[in-house]
Each structure stands twice: as C-alpha cells, then as structure tokens.
Amino acid sequence: MAFPKIRMRRLRSSEAMRRLVRETALSVDNLVYPLFVREGKGLKKPIKSLAGCFHFSPDIIAAEAAEVAALGIPAVLLFGLPEKKDEIGSQAWAEDGVVQRAIGEIKKAVPQLLVITDVCLCGYTSHGHCGVITNGKVNNDATCELLAKVALSHAQAGADIVAPSDMMDGRVRYIREALEENGFHDIAIMSYAAKYASAFYGPFRDAAESAPAFGDRKTYQMDPANARQAMAEIALDIEEGADVVIVKPALCYLDVIYRAKQRFDCPIAAYNVSGEYMMVQSAAQAGLMDKDSMMIEMLYSIKRAGADIIITYFAKESTRLLSG
C-alpha cells in the first residue's frame, strides 16, 4: 500500500525549513519591560521575589532604561514605591513623586524609549487597596477622581502612555477627560481592561510592597471563571477612550486573549505576570527544565493566542536570545 502523498514532517526537516514556514513571529518589537523605582539615591537592589529584577532609585533608573533601549525594546512600564503612604495614596500624584522623577530621568537619557506608567493607588495607600476606602469598602467613584489626577501628573512629567490597573468602573473615562481637558491629546491609555483576581501576582506584590492589609481584591478584579465578562470590560474601556487593552495574567487566560483579538480592532496586550515568570525561574534553578526553552515557548503561546504586545520580565533575556 502506497504511503500518503502528504508527509507533515517534510516541513520540520531542518531549522531553516522550520523558520521558513513558521506561522507566529515573536519580535523584540512586541515587548515591554517592567521596572520598579523607589526612593533613594544610587540604588540598584535585587528583588528577592523576582529573580533578575531590581529596585532602582530615580537617579539610577535611566541607565537601566538606556540598556533596555539599546536592546531594541520599545517601551518600559514603571511601578513606583513611595517613601510615605497614606489613606488615599497622595504620593501617587505628587509633582516630585518617585515615578514622576523617574520619567524625567528616563526621557532625558533615552527620549526615544516609550515610558508607560502604572496608574493605581495600591502601592501608595497605607491599606494596600487600589482605591479610597469608605465604610470598609473601596469607593469606586472617589477612586476614579484620584486616578485621573495620577494619570495627569504622569503625563505632565513626560509619560507617553498611562496604564490604569485598578479595575474601577469608569476610570478610563475619568482619565481620558482629564487628559483632554489639560491638552494631553496624544497621551495613549493602555487599560488593564481584563485583570483577574489571580494567585499569580504574589511575587509582584512583594516587589511592589502592595499587598492589601485586609481582605482581598475580588470585588474589583475579575473572577477567574468568567470570560464573557472580560469582553464586556474590554468593550467598555474602548468606548471610554482606551487605545490599548491588557489581559492579565497571560498563561491562564490565553482563551481570553484569543477572544479579545477576534472581537476587537485595537491592539491587545498581555501581561506575563510575576508568578508565571517565577515558575520558570524556579523550575530552571531546580534543574527540572531548560529556562530558555520554557521562556520562548511561553512567549510564543501568548503571541499565538493573539497578543500584539507582551509585558514581560523576560523582555531583556528573550531579546538577547531572539537576536542571537
């Protein structure tokens, strides 16, 4: 009996052949590198919960940003750790705040690098929640007003993109109106539109010192069981003025990334979060798996699902591997 004419292995016969027919392209152009900035001078301190990542002071962070830019990575995402915290997170919109100063330093050193800023209050509030607490609950509308102040302060400092991560209803509209009213027509909003109440944020919360002092964030972050609701969240954020939307985390929500890509015309970003990153690091450190292979396979899965942009702590390592 003759063998079938089609042999699928023909197109896997060599690395050159595999490259030629590869369906999904993973490029440095797709990557965003998160950076943590905290008060201090001359500070570059390893973060125990995020292997290979550091806390930088504003005067040092520009050198790291220059290295990122030299690799061809188009953007960084800034998270701030203030010296003082209070009930409403007022340092988040301070003119001389840690993120605001870091933006200025980065823009002076590498003006071509896009600076995206996390817009939230959890790292700035004494209680660790993402908004104003009223009668033991997060006050949605009062929080939105403060988030607009934070986003505006970032724009005034020179940010290119503001990224609200709080999951308050209507906050994109508040931010878009504040930017427009103050002449920042070209500042893009990259909204954490479908951010799930995930167990994979643990290493980040340690790094950002942003764990809630009581309760959890399940009343504002999404239930992991829901996907249709994510489409509603994304649609609302686009309607309110978001230019890019984020699905977070990435790996457990590849189906949500895929649905979003099929339904919406705007760029879709995915956040390859701290827990996903540290699973790879921990497995590699234990000698159980090959880190480079896991990293690239993970990033391909996110891109294959439909993400146009991948926010990842692997941005520098993967770029060196892809370009090598």
Query: Mean pLDDT, nearest integer?
Result: 95
Q: What is the total number of structural domains?
A: 1
Helix run count: 11
| 3D shape | globular
CATH architecture: Alpha-Beta Barrel
CATH homologous group name = Aldolase class I
Distance between the termini: 46 Å
Largest sheet: 8 strands, parallel, barrel
State the share of residues found in helices, binned by percent. 25-40%
CATH C-level category:
Alpha Beta
Low-confidence stretches: none
| DSSP strand tally | 12
Report strand %. 15-25%
Q: Provide the gyration radius in Å.
A: 20 Å
Order of SSEs: HEEEHEHEEEHEHEHHEHEHHEH
Give the structural class: alpha/beta
Description:
This protein is 38% helix and 18% strand. By secondary structure, the protein is of the alpha/beta class. The protein has a single domain, classed as TIM Barrel (Alpha-Beta Barrel), CATH 3.20.20.70. Helix 8 runs parallel beside helix 10 (291-305). The relative contact order is 0.13.
Characteristic terms for this protein:
single chain, 324 residues, alpha/beta, TIM Barrel, 8-stranded parallel barrel, two-stranded antiparallel ribbon, 11 helices, 38% helix
Short précis:
With 324 residues, this protein is α/β, with parallel strands linked by helices. It has helices at 15-21, 61-70, 98-109, 140-157, 171-181, 202-208, 228-240, 254-263, 274-285, 291-305, 315-323, and strands at 31-38, 44-46, 54-56, 75-81, 114-119, 133-134, 137-138, 161-164, 188-195, 244-248, 268-272, 309-312. It has an eight-stranded parallel beta barrel, surrounded by eight helices. A two-stranded antiparallel sheet has the order 6-7.
